[in-house]
Amino acid sequence: MTPEQDQLIQQELLRRNDFTSNALLLLRHTGMRIGECIDLSVDCLRAVGPDQWAIHVPLGKLKTERWVPVDSLVCQLVDRLRSMRSPDAPSTGRLLLPRSRGQFMLVRKLRNALRDVAAAAGISSRIVPHQMRHTYATEMLRAGVTLAAVMKLLGHKSPHMTLHYLDITQCDLQREYRLARPHPRRLVPSPPTPLAASPVSLDPTGILHSLQSAQHVLEMFRLSSRRIQPTSPRPPRQPPSRSSPRSANSTRQKNRQRLAG
Q1: What is the pLDDT of residues 42-98, one digit of tens each?
Q2: Range of the domain at 212
Q3: What's the pTM value of the predicted model, to 2 decimals?
Q4: What span, in angstroms and rounded, lies between the C-alpha atoms of 140 and 166?
Q5: Structural domain includes residue 259
């Protein structure tokens, strides 16, 4: 789903403002699976701090539960869905999205509603609820959320699964490159002041600065002088020379002649 299609669908959902539209908007802004969304309880929205809210996502596809941070828009969506519940809804085991006709029929209802919304927005391509999960993941990554955090938000157990959800374009690469260029990564941080620019003082701060400057100079010298020196190959070891049988016999004869003489 392209950003333009995402914007058109959200505008149409907000315009309709009915039960299924708010449920689909909840999917879009939390990155939940559709099966997780229909299993949400009425009290799924919890305060986790001053003006901080999170939705408790029950056991999902990978048998894991999680807390997804949300903003004020999602809080309004949950309040709307609560107000749209039928007064005669069961009081025990209450779900945020009642399913009087069963789980399968509720999922089918949401899928059909999204298809109608996409057609009303002038989108001819096929749009399914799971694409909103991909859009949410890409949106979080572009907002500065790390890959590890996106993995937790989606409820994945492996970063390889999360990478399948991310749509990294050339514009994303260009933006990351521009942001990284002014702040290059270095092995050793530059000292706060040059070594020869400030006189050495005996206070702890001055001593610490001097040590940091000296460490920086030594590390730069080590990196610049570290080269692989070619080593000359060792000559092969010569096997020990063995005397031939003839030379050994001649030596024995000479020794016998000397003893006889």
Answers
A1: 989 999 888 899 999 987 666 677 899 999 999 999 999 998 887 766 554 588 998
A2: 192-220
A3: 0.63
A4: 10
A5: no
